[in-house]
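Batch manifest, entry 17 of 40.
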Amino acid sequence: MIICPHCQAENIEGTIFCEQCGKSLLAESGASAVSTQRLDKPTDDLGAKATWGTARFDEHATIVMHIHEAPYPIELKPAQETILGRVDSASGARPHIDLTPHGALQKGVSRIHAAIRRGDDTLTLVDLGSVNGTYLNGQRLVPNQPRVLRDGDEVRLGSLISHIYFK
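Output type: C-alpha cells
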C-alpha cells in the first residue's frame, strides 16, 4: 500500500493519484508529471463510420457525451472553448472535462488533448497537439485545425471512444 503524504490515506500499489484527496502520489517522491504514453497499437484502425447528424447547435442546447463502457454519460453546456483531457496535479493540467475516471491515462488521452469550440450556431472539435491523436468518425484530425462536430458523431481521443449528441 502507498500512504498519501497529504491525507495519510492508504492507496493500492501503483496508484498515481490519491483516491481520497486526489493529490499526486508522485509529487512527494520527486517524480515528474505522468506523461502520456504512446500506444503500442496504432489507433487508426479501430474502425468508425461517418454519421450525418445535424451540425446546427442551438445556443440553449447541451452536449451529451456517451463514453464507451461508462455507466453514465457526461452532460455539459459548452463554453466558448471546452478542453477535454485528464487532470494531472503534478503538472497542473486541469481540463474542463476530466476523463481520468474513464481510463484516460491507459487509453492514451493527453492532459490537454482536444477542445470543443462554440461558434455562432455550430461546434467544432480541435486536436491540441495530443500524443495519440483525436479522431472524428475515424478520421484523424490535423492538430489545431477545427472540424465541424455533428449530432451523433464518434469522437476518439487516443483509444477512448465516445459519441456526442446534442440535446
